[in-house]
Write a structure and sequence with these properties.
Number of helices: 12
Structural class: mainly beta
Number of strands: 66
Distance between the termini: 34 Å
């Protein structure tokens, strides 16, 4: 990220105003800018520059004193023979004072300097004779700077964000490449990449979901960061700095506030509820399209405080922040005949009858059965404690502790077909504990170091509201269905991860070269238990069968010896990184940064060997990723063409950020450490719901040898022995212009950027037991083709699968153009607008945590062959704007307005065909249903298809025309050929300062209107989307003896309507600041 300052002379004072360009035409030749961008693990800022004599020669042995005014921290260095100096490891923010103290020339002071996270401000000066008056230069803190590939958000921008959730996503969405998707997890996609591929750090501590289960990107259910604790946030997409790694999406970094010599604090309370929201909205999609949908009752209360100050003045400081969310959860659906806003086919009387039978026949308690009216409560608690210690003038240390714990209640009834009792609800909870210690040291005027030690510890639990079997009753008298008991996938579901990181970096100033080098070592410890069905899963055909203890199906899965823990995926991943780079000021206009990073992964843990899998595939399923390594070169440049134009860009290779759960699949699904039993049409004993049936317990093998001997090994996930780290090459070119716009003012910053991403070795999943992939000479099976050789059929309909994590040669690419325009006026107005266009292709988006889902739900023509098409998270067009205004309607008390506007393309949609699994003893995807294949698009009277109903032919042609697929006739539809509707968002934040109880204290009232455009016009601001990004075009019943598709149903799948994101809501808040 580059940052420049425009200088404006007022009398004898030079004002530095935040802009993108550096120029000075006065006695002091100052260049204040940024030479490098280092944001992933960075926690500090720095100052660097060159001091010259009045004749322009290097001024050696000049003293430069950098003082952090709020804390009194003082650093003194001396310029080298080239006149260069640098000070690193400084607190971000400010204000700072830089004093240039020369024995021969006039001293100079630069005041009001503010440092940005991970960046080195360039402060250079040309000295003057003693006859010249001492010169003072002042500047002010920039609120934010926003371009596509690099954005900065200061304390004012964070406090003024117009969002409801107190999440950093509401701040950084101002970047044109950052989209917060309209879904429950509010997934954050950057530059059209998978939201799980981003990296998030605060104070150098990872905030990532290191395992990869949470769609939101955090290791917790919500943001674990109290917003009032954050001082700065940066976003980078292509930082050409080798210190940065661990991402394949975007890089988000922040720093917590620190205490100063003054005590400062705040307390706040915010509330949002249905009393200040739309009561209903007209649906634009789904089963209730065209109807008014009631908004569910809701209420959220958030409160917290922060406090910082000195423990020992000028020496030791503290800062702490606490935040608590309390949000009772409303039920969207209830049984027919209830007072619920949405009602299921299943009636209240049927639900009560099931409850009565469960009590009287099966002897279950009310807690084990559940109810139709339970309202769970969701909470989220966050705490940050930070200590800063000025050891002496040359050494500084900091300590950070971060805690978060929250829950999210899931598996609630979400459609009208099935009523789910509260016993089947479950809480997903995470407890996060982060620790960080950092030491910043200046050993000489030219050599400094930074040492960091971080620990991230996360406990993830998915706890059912009950501990009995999962019970499912079909065909109730009303035609509805009902389930109760613990959800099948929560029977054994625990995850513990701990990541420890040690990092040492050094900076050495050699003439005009700033040389940096370092080493980083991290160890990730994973203990994951995921074993569905270990409490039993029972299905009844109807209510009478349930009454009579007659189960249609009873299934049970557990680890060998009936011990779920033996199926746990337990392994460590150690990563060693070595890096070095040189930032060279070739001239005062041109800087080049070049470096190289090397990463190597080691692990001694291996999945259990499965001989049966080896016989099927010819591959060793105990392969791991030990020894996988990669070289990551980077080079970037910054060239100030003149006072008005700056060109910058570079090239780099990036890797990391992919979910480690993909690796864990091989450990938890070795196929030999679990057993499964399925019993059909059995008469239960009354206690078989509360505890596992003895017959099922006895059927589980006691050892892996028993599993292999019986040939009953389960599904296997394995890693390719030649697996490489997925990576990409990024190329960026950008131009900054300082432009004047008539009638609007001068000093507009106009930035144009182009970013190209070339993906290499992208992750892909294949079934290694199928012909063409299997390396076993005894695997058997053959493959044939239909549709003129385009579609493969296998004669192996075995349920057994061996899914291989491997790489694709062509992983797709991204071509992204963006333009932005921004300006701050002296009268309190500010404006920023950006537009981005994305063209993204990929082979497999990797949206799931399991190999099975990534294999079966990624649309392909042939399952084992990667098909590159439009990316799942491509946002083709996105326009964002921020308008701010600050004034004092009441003297001494600020009023602030901030309006956020977004207009973006909808999410991509891919049409699919559903093929029945058993096709003339052949199959497209052995062991799986076949609902996510790219559809063959028949021409009129196409000889490759027939219809069970002649009317379907015309109906399908109309559907093809409506979907815009006529151009694919005679072939297959591509990915992402359609989109959900455009999304338009407008949010408004208004804050008003009010007098406090004590002089110097102030209160603040906050009003935030979410989806203001819907408040203005109820037909605007509505959102329709698709949960999985696919729409079925037709169903295939079979393949006839001539190899033709037999189409038996034309689908009319639609979108779903997002009620929560389609209505206006108002949040009110009050805070007290001192």
């Amino acid at each position: 990220m580059k940052r420049f300052f425009q200088n404006k002379t007022i009398g004898n004072t030079i004002m530095l105003k935040n802009s993108r360009f550096s120029r000075m035409a006065v006695a002091v030749a100052m260049a204040v800018g940024i030479s490098t961008s280092a944001v992933a693990q960075e926690t500090s800022g720095g100052v660097r520059g060159v001091i010259t004599t009045p004749t322009g020669q290097p001024a050696a042995n000049v003293s430069v004193v950098v003082t952090h005014i709020p804390s009194g921290t003082r650093r003194t260095v001396t310029t080298n023979e080239a006149g260069a100096y640098q000070v690193r490891g400084l607190r971000v923010g400010g204000p700072y004072k830089v004093t240039i103290d020369s024995d021969q020339y006039r001293d100079q002071d630069i005041e009001g300097l503010f440092l940005q996270l991970g960046e080195v401000e360039r402060v250079s000066a040309q000295l003057e004779d003693e006859s010249v008056e001492r010169i003072l230069v002042t500047s002010s803190a920039p609120a934010f700077s926003n371009t596509a590939t690099s954005s900065y958000f200061g304390e004012a921008a964070i406090a003024g964000q117009a969002g409801l959730t107190r999440d950093i996503k509401d701040v950084i969405r101002a970047n044109p490449l950052v989209s917060s998707l309209t879904d429950g997890a509010r997934q954050l996609t950057i530059a059209g990449n998978n939201p799980r591929f981003n990296s998030i750090t605060v104070d150098g501590i990872s905030q990532n979901d290191n395992f990869g289960l949470n769609n939101g990107g955090f290791p917790t259910q919500r943001s674990p960061l109290p917003l009032d604790a954050l001082e700065q946030i940066t976003v980078d997409v292509a930082p050409f700095d080798v210190k940065q790694s661990g991402f394949s999406g975007g890089l988000i970094n922040a720093v917590f506030k620190s205490g100063t010599n003054e005590f400062h604090g705040s307390a706040f309370f915010e509330r949002i509820s249905d009393s200040l929201a739309a009561s209903s909205v007209r649906s634009t999609a789904g089963f209730n399209q065209g109807q008014d949908v009631d908004v569910l009752p809701f209420e959220e209360k958030t409160y917290g405080f922060s406090l910082g100050g000195p423990i020992i003045k000028d020496k030791l400081f503290f800062f702490t922040s606490y935040q608590m969310l309390d949000a009772p959860r409303s039920l969207e659906f209830g049984p027919a005949g209830s007072n619920a806003p949405n009602q299921t086919i299943t009636t209240a009387a049927e639900a009560q009858e099931v409850i009565d039978i469960a009590r009287t026949v099966y002897g279950l308690t009310d807690d084990q059965i559940g109810s139709t009216t339970a309202s769970p409560i969701e909470e989220d608690e966050s705490l940050v404690v930070k200590l800063d210690w000025n050891i002496n003038d040359y050494h500084r240390a900091s300590f950070t502790y971060q805690f978060n714990e929250g829950n999210n209640t899931r598996n609630l009834t979400n459609d009208d077909d099935e009523l789910i009792l509260s016993s089947a609800f479950y809480n997903t909870t995470e407890e996060l504990n982060n620790f960080s210690v950092k030491l910043y040291s200046d050993w000489t005027d030219s050599f400094s170091t930074e040492l960091a030690f971080n620990v991230q510890d996360v406990e993830n639990r998915q706890t059912s509201f009950s501990e009995i079997a999962d019970v499912f009753i079909e065909e109730l008298p009303s035609g509805g269905e009902l389930s109760f008991g613990s959800d099948e996938n929560r029977h054994a579901n625990n995850l513990d991860t701990e990541k420890t990181t040690i990092r040492a970096t050094a900076q050495y100033l050699l003439d005009e070269h700033n040389i940096e080098f370092g080493v980083e070592y991290s160890q990730l410890e994973i203990n994951n238990i995921f074993l569905p069905g270990s409490r039993g899963v029972i299905r009844f055909d109807n209510l009478e069968d349930f009454r009579n203890l007659q189960a249609a199906e009873y299934s049970y899965t557990n680890g060998i010896g009936n011990d779920p823990s033996v199926a746990a995926g337990i392994f460590d991943l150690d990563t060693l990184s070595i890096f070095a780079q040189d930032s060279w000021d070739i001239t005062d206009k041109l800087t080049i940064n070049a470096g190289l990073r090397y990463e190597r992964i080691t692990t001694s843990d291996e999945p259990l060997f499965n001989q049966n899998s080896f016989n099927r595939t010819g591959r060793n399923n105990s392969e791991n990723i030990d020894g996988v390594d990669i070289l990551l070169p980077r080079i970037g440049f910054n060239y100030e063409v003149n006072d008005l134009v700056t060109v910058y860009g570079g090239f780099g290779r990036y890797a990391g950020g992919q979910p480690n759960v993909w690796i864990s699949n091989a450990f938890s699904q070795a196929g030999v450490n679990t057993g499964e039993v399925e019993l059909d049409n059995i008469l239960l004993s009354p206690g078989d719901i509360a505890s596992v049936r003895q017959e099922a317990l006895d059927a589980i093998p006691n050892s892996t040898d028993e599993v292999l001997a019986a040939g009953i090994d389960g599904p296997v996930s394995l890693i390719d022995e030649d697996f490489e780290l997925p990576n990409d090459y990024r190329y960026q070119l950008a131009v900054d212009y300082l432009v004047d716009i008539p009638f609007l003012g001068d000093g507009f910053v106009w930035t144009n950027e182009f970013l190209f991403i070339d993906r290499r070795d992208s992750a892909f999943w294949v079934d290694a037991s199928l012909p063409g992939i299997s390396e076993s000479p005894t695997s058997g099976g053959t493959v044939t083709t239909i549709l003129d050789g385009q579609l493969q059929l296998f004669n192996d309909d075995d349920e057994q699968t061996d899914l291989l994590l491997t790489n694709t040669g062509d992983g797709g690419e991204s071509k992204i153009f963006s333009t932005s325009l921004s300006k701050n006026w002296d009268n309190g107005w500010s404006f920023s607008a950006s537009y981005a266009n994305q063209d993204v292709t990929e082979a497999n988006p990797g949206t799931s945590s399991t190999a099975r889902s990534n294999f079966r739900f990624s649309p392909q023509i042939n399952r084992n062959e990667p098909f590159v098409g439009t990316g799942r998270f491509e946002i083709e067009h996105r326009l964002v704007a921020n308008i701010g205004y600050s004034t004092e309607f009441f003297s001494g008390y600020e009023t602030n307005f901030n309006l956020f506007f977004e207009r973006r393309s909808g999410n991509t949609l891919t049409y699919t065909a559903n093929y029945d699994r058993g096709l003339l003893d052949s199959t497209l995807s052995p062991g799986f249903d076949s609902g996510t294949f790219l559809p063959y698009i028949p021409t009129v009277d196409d000889p490759n298809v027939v219809f069970t109903d002649p009317a379907f032919a015309a109906e399908l042609q109309q559907s093809i025309a409506d979907a815009g697929l006529l151009g694919s006739a005679g072939g297959f539809a591509s990915k992402g050929t359609d989109r959900t509707p455009y999304v338009t968002t407008m949010d408004l934040s208004i804050t008003q300062e009010i007098p406090g109880f004590v002089k110097g204290h102030k209160g603040r009232l906050t009003l935030i209107i979410d989806n203001l455009i819907n408040l203005i016009d109820s037909s605007s601001g509505r959102v329709a989307d698709s949960q999985f990004g696919t729409l079925r075009l037709y169903d295939v019943d079979s393949i006839d003896d001539q190899g033709r598709l037999v189409i038996d149903r034309i689908r009319d799948d639609g979108l779903r309507f997002d009620t929560d994101d389609s209505v206006w809501r108002i949040k009110l808040g009050i805070s007290y600041n001192f």
